[in-house]
TrEMBL record:
Signal peptide: none
Record protein name field: Cytosine deaminase-like metal-dependent hydrolase
TM segment ranges: none
InterPro entries cross-referenced by the UniProt entry: Amidohydro-rel, Metal-dep_hydrolase_composite, Metal_Hydrolase, MTA/SAH_deaminase
GO MF entry, a single one: hydrolase activity, acting on carbon-nitrogen (but not peptide) bonds
Phylogenetic placement of the source organism: Archaea, Methanobacteriati, Methanobacteriota, Stenosarchaea group, Halobacteria
Organism expressing this protein natively: Halorubrum californiense DSM 19288
Amidohydrolase-related domain: residues covered: 58-412
Amino acid sequence: MADLLIHDAIVVTMNQENQVLKDGSVRVTDGFISSVAPTDPSDRDSTADRVIDASGKVVIPGLIDAHRHTDFALVQGLFSELGGGELLKEAFALYHTAEPALGESFFEAAWQLACLRQLTHGVTTVNAMDFTPELGAESIDESGLRAVIGPELADFLNPASADDQLAAARRFIESYHDTYEGRVTASIAPGGEAGCSRRLWEGVAELRADYPDLRLHTHLYDSSEADTMAAGSGADDPLDLLDQYDLLDERTLLTHLLHADRDDARRIADASAHVLHCPTVYSYFQAGSQSWFPLPALREFDVNVVIGLDDPFWFDSWDLIQEAKHARLLSNFEYGSQQWSSYDMLRMLTIDAAHALGLDDHVGSLEPGKRADLLVIDVDTPRLQPFSNLPSVLTNSVTAGDIETVVVDGEVLMVEHSVKSMDVEAVRAAARRERKRLQARTGWETSLAGTTPPEKSILRRMSARPLLRAMGQYGRGFLTSSRG
Ligand SMILES: [Zn+2]
């Protein structure tokens, strides 16, 4: 007996045969997909515990956000009218001074709000890099979602010493890796060539040797000063830096690569590493003169490129489908049309992202034996009908608001837009309360018209920290590259 049966759906399986069923049924038993098949008339009278009539609806695998930071989710709206340079200075001031004062309740509320938004946007798995990973794991558990969480390691950014950060990361891995029925796994997450000392890279290499099953998740080549920063760690360039510590292989996830070139793309392909592309944050703020990531070369060498929202609270969007659309628009603008097909985009949001995270045996497609992570999307609306090219509809026309139902691990977390796994009002109340506290402590003012940063923000809040020296040395490039 199935626990869940969805019938009469257009089922986009994302399996190896790219199979789409016009009138399909998906059965779920004990959290696993037990069958995907054409709808049999008897399915409509099924006595499964839960039956969803998906006539006029599309079922796709849950979306996977391949790169995101979460712990400052409550700053949404504060930064969205700022310029790139201003944004980065204000963001750094928050990162650097707010964390000890704001305390756990702030970050807990941030994670819960982020989980709620992730869920309502159909993002069933997130690959997160954060300073508050334990709170993240617990929020992910409560929400019913799935996550890979890396404690962000960056001793040029976080005042804690490299050794203390490494010890904390080890504790996180020991306590949280492969917990909550496997919905939470850990990664090793050094911030990147700009944020880490040699001692930290050495420690990362030790962690990697001790936990070979984990992904290494980092930022790379996100500023034009990347080579200089790698040279500061005794390497020729950022990829050489990873190579020196034996960190560049098929378990490595490289975020941004804005300033990488064709040769770098070939080296990434040779290592079978994966690229996590986050187009909006860079195009929205355009900090400094920007180059774009080398998509044609990455595709020429068949590198797995997937999509992430990065810091969605900076530009006020949690919609991963929109993020993929931005990726296509910006790449087409830079390199000419047809850089990706619509079906490529769907793969990037599902099975290719699962492959990057090492989860493709479990999620990313709708196939018997996989965990049941899926979305029901309403396409039977005047806004979307009539259509013929379904992948184009799903990547160009559908928005997160069309996602009706979200299932993770066979559990129905949202049904017909109603969230079941979280107390929505409590999450909203905590977010409002903590946001008020943030504003009171930092001096940020808000109104319906926008926001105003604190008067004497940077120098007062950032004095006598190692970061200030780094800023003087690298200026905007350092800021751009350390937490984008
Ligand atoms: Zn990032």
